[in-house]
Design brief:
- With 162 residues, the protein is an alpha+beta fold.
- The chain is built from three helices and six strands; from the N terminus they run βαββαβαββ.
- The protein has a six-stranded mixed beta sheet.
- The protein is globular, with a radius of gyration of 16 Å.
- The protein starts with 9 loop residues before the first strand and ends in a 17-residue tail after the last strand.
């Protein structure tokens, strides 16, 4: 037997003041997007902002539905919209922020498993890592260089060709 170990590398910041201007702006756009999320069931509002290589910024938020599987996360909405409107333009960065109606979120909020797999697909497609910036409503900010940090054993398209 061999035991495999994985090491994570995440940059953590205490406040927005420590971030580069571009990252701070992107997080603010994600926070603003969360304000208009449609989340009447969970009352958990998520905003995402993508920075594309061409400088375009795409924002999105979570959209719930009474038939729960029919809802969609902010991250996937942003990625799918970007891919539809700018199919040949790479995603450079993704900022995610969240807030809740009945409690304060003061820790970084990572993407769910389905969103992680979608991000993995787009990193493979564009052959570049996506920088991921995470924040709750307040508190620390985490910056991750590529989805593999959050999804170390991700499923790759090459597996379908074997």
């Amino acid at each position: 037997m061999i035991k495999l170990k994985f090491e994570l590398s995440i940059d953590e910041y205490d406040s927005l003041k420590e971030l580069k201007t571009e990252d701070k702006f992107l997080l603010e756009r994600a926070k603003n997007a969360a304000d208009s999320a449609y989340a009447p069931y969970s009352e958990y509002y998520v905003g995402a902002a993508l920075l594309l290589e061409n400088g375009e910024i795409i924002t999105a938020n979570n959209q719930e539905n009474a038939a729960y599987p029919s809802g969609l996360c902010a991250e996937r909405i942003a990625v799918f919209y970007a891919s539809t409107q700018f199919p040949e333009v790479a995603i450079k960065k993704l900022a995610i922020s969240a807030k809740a109606k009945n409690f304060k979120i003061d820790t970084p909020v990572p993407p769910c498993g389905a969103c992680r797999q979608v991000l993995a697909e787009y990193e493979t497609k564009q052959k570049n890592k996506i920088e991921i910036i995470l924040m709750g409503e307040s508190g620390k900010i985490q910056i991750i260089q590529g989805i593999e940090t959050l999804l170390p054993l991700m499923f790759h398209a090459e597996e379908l060709k074997k």
